[in-house]
Write a structure and sequence with these properties.
The protein has 72 residues and is mainly α. The protein contains three helices and no strands. The protein has one domain.
Length: 72
């Protein structure tokens, strides 16, 4: 659904201002390539924090504590 909406917005932009739509079409892969290292850093930090959480709660879990299910 998200892809369909993006395609419709791009088609509307193509009708209204075709040079801008073509520029967006060309620059989108470059923006994606530039943002890729930041995504990898985010994944790394997320894994690091999950590891630290598991490490810090290990003694409590060994003593029988069970985490509460997340609300929602």
């Amino acid at each position: 659904m998200k892809t369909l909406i993006a395609l419709l917005i791009w088609c509307l932009l193509l009708v209204l201002c075709w040079p801008l739509a073509l520029l967006a079409l060309v620059l989108w892969p470059l923006v994606w390539l530039i943002s890729l290292p930041f995504r990898l850093i985010g994944i790394t930090f997320s894994a690091l924090f999950a590891f630290l959480h598991a490490l810090l709660t290990l003694p409590a879990r060994l003593l029988g504590w069970k985490p509460q299910p997340a609300a929602g």
